[in-house]
Amino acid sequence: MIDISASPTSTTLVVSGDLDLAERDQFPEVTARVTGLRRQLVVIDMCRVTFMDSTGAAFLISLADSSRNRGGAAVLRGADARDLFVLEVCGALELFRIDRDHRCDDVPDAVEEPSIV
């Protein structure tokens, strides 16, 4: 599940569950909604992501590309080491700012993020 909210300057996506091939049918609609909001900053909250594969990574990459094309940025918040590894293997980690200050307070199995630049 992906919840979308917007402020005057940013769009926030809160992702819950798996971000993978099985969920790909919702990705075009979510991408269209986020793009239509035309906010400079896209924040992707991954505290509740349980699994991400290369299909999920491609979705995140498309969001980051869209934001960059508008002169904005994409921020990953609450991404754990395995999520960052998938993006790194895809050669796309540099497309994202990593929010290292965010803590997933209400997620029982939150994992500390590695210190990746």
Automatic annotation (TrEMBL):
<dbReference type="InterPro" id="IPR002645">
    <property type="entry name" value="STAS_dom"/>
</dbReference>
<dbReference type="Pfam" id="PF01740">
    <property type="entry name" value="STAS"/>
</dbReference>
<dbReference type="InterPro" id="IPR036513">
    <property type="entry name" value="STAS_dom_sf"/>
</dbReference>
<feature type="domain" description="STAS">
    <location>
        <begin position="1"/>
        <end position="114"/>
    </location>
</feature>
<protein>
    <recommendedName>
        <fullName>STAS domain-containing protein</fullName>
    </recommendedName>
</protein>
